[in-house]
Amino acid sequence: MAAPLPPRCDETAAWPALRQHFEGEGRRFDVRRALAADPGRVEAFSLQAPHVFADLSKNLLAAEGERLLLQLARECRLEAQRDAMFAGEAINATEGRQVMHFLLRAPRDEAVPPGLASELAQVHETLEAMLAFAESVRADGQITDIVNIGIGGSDLGPQMATLALDEFVAPDKRFHFVSNIDGHELAGVLRGLKAANTLFLVASKTFTTLETMTNARSARQWFVQRGGTDVARHFAALTTHVQAAAEFGIERTFGFRDWVGGRYSMWSAIGLPIAIAVGAQRFRELLAGAHAMDRHFRSEPLERNLPVRLALLDVWYRDFHGFGSRSVAPYHSALRRLPAYLQQLEMESNGKRVDRQGRVLPYATSPVVWGEPGTNGQHAYFQMLHQGTDVVPVEFIAVKTPAHGLAEHHPQLLANVLAQAAALMLGKDDPGGHKHFPGNRPSTLLLLDRLDPQSLGALIALYEHRVFCAGAIWGINSFDQWGVELGKVLARDIAPRLASGDLAGLDASTAALVRRLRA
Ligand code: F6P
Description:
Rossmann fold; 3 domains; 5-stranded parallel β-sheet; 20 helices; globular
């Protein structure tokens, strides 16, 4: 018999207690006063996790709120839910799948439940093969350009990480990422390439995704038209669907299992572009950093567990304060694709409106996640963060030691990140109105010593587990993505109509647009 589902957040005793706390002191909480009154607040709201230090002290949360949120996590049996994932239970129930991306970064000799031992052995077998191939490409002077063709999780993770680790990337290779079905993207990349010097990586978990298959076919056609003969040498596939890759004509395939969700897959064969870019040793360091965070998540008590603490803030802001979005501001230009990566990780995982039993939820789930690197964002939308009508919690990410030697820059960058967080919180009185800053606007600071493979791995695993924790408290399945299906089906129906003009059965608005596009 299946174990009973853990209580949903609104079925706990902590939920109404949190509501009462919010209606009382929670709503009026002033973080400036709290910091002035409580000399222990900074310490109590700071946490050192592997490679990531977090200052949570500027958030709109009192010790009592924190205590109730931790009670909420316990009542939702968060630890048991976490342990079920690590035990390999099929927690992705709507797809009948286990959720085991953590296994991709576990060392070969990691103690795992007996049922997972053969999976772990296979993970390492694929990892060795993929890293050996990565090294052979790095040593191959004829290959100068690597084109990753993939979308969603088969694009965002490898692209984000390859950019983030720019300091370590092989100087004689260029990396291109083609995801969009918009042919402008592929055409723009191909324009600068030579067939003989290019390696295409076709990355698709399912090997059926319209965008990726269309781009892959066009790339193959381009390759042949440009005199390329050796498809086997110039194309490789990264997929769970080895058979489909073979049918496409690709001989070299690196596989992974369906228990890896697309948005959790950069640790798998999907990470091959990263491995080619930074080499086998540094890819192993990326995995090691993520594994260190896995250990932290599995072993630290909830009070000292960073993914848990961040997720509790997410629930607090979304369901009690009613904040609709969270802004991520990495103060390191190499992290410029991190917000886009997090949009898929968080919003595809937790953008759900029903619980695990399919019941419509009476409370809000995923916020909108958005952002740009600092300091650029300061000169664009930070106006709204400081003086707009909505409160948007901000997550600043800063790196203590830069990778460049331009002495003047980094102290200025760090001064700006500290200044923005302080300005949001402190505000400024001005009776004239226009120059008044209300202040008391919350932010979190995540601090890395350096941006390197280990710290990046830890940071991304931190976000993965935070998403898991919020989803577990909300009682949703964070690992399916049915919401992306309907549009795909409709596009398949509309595409031939653009050619044929058949409007039968279309709604009036779509029919009029098809007519206009054909005119
Ligand atoms: O459409 C959404 C999605 O299924 C994502 O979850 C996934 O990362 C992306 O498409 C790409 O899928 P695939 O790797 O199978 O091509």
